[in-house]
Design a protein that fits this description.
This protein is α/β, with parallel strands linked by helices. The protein has five helices and four strands. The protein has a four-stranded mixed beta sheet. Helix 1 packs across helix 5.
Length: 153
């Protein structure tokens, strides 16, 4: 998986986390690209208001490029341009909120950034948490990946 964006110092860790997700999903992410970036509290609030009509700061936003469900494989989709990677979408994280949440939950900022990046990826892969059963599936999947990556709670 190609992760684009200004992610220093987290880029390599997030790429390794997504490689771990690939193993858990038993799916090839080598021809997949996502855009992932960090923004200020003001910027994520603006994006949240503009795209979700929720006028408040949030921790992570995802903008999927595919209409995918969790049970669909990426191999069912084709890139928009032949020969290019399949673009899954954008993930935006508010680092300030991530730091605050890490402190509240009693774990490292590193673990919180990994959780939020993975949470965003799962949304791009069709997971959501609107219904209780969907939330359970999404959280179970996230915890399995984070645990196998070594950043479980």
């Amino acid at each position: 998986m190609t992760v684009e964006g200004k992610l220093f110092p987290y880029k390599k860790k997030i790429e390794r986390l997504f490689e771990c997700a690939q193993e858990v999903f038993k799916e090839d992410f080598s021809n997949v690209t996502i855009s992932l970036g960090f923004v200020s509290g003001d910027e994520i609030k603006r994006l949240n208001a503009e795209f979700r009509q929720i006028d408040r700061v949030t921790d992570v936003l995802s903008f999927p490029n595919l209409q995918k469900t969790p049970d669909q494989k990426l191999s069912e989709f084709t890139p928009e341009i032949e020969g290019e990677n399949l673009f899954l979408g954008d993930v935006i994280i508010c680092k300030k909120v991530a730091k605050k949440q890490a402190k509240e939950y009693g774990h490292s900022v590193n673990r919180e950034i990994c959780f939020l990046a993975l949470h965003g990826l799962l949304h791009l892969l069709g997971y959501d948490h609107i219904e209780k059963d969907d939330e359970k599936l999404m959280m179970k999947t996230a915890e399995e990946i984070l645990s196998s990556f070594g950043v479980a709670r």
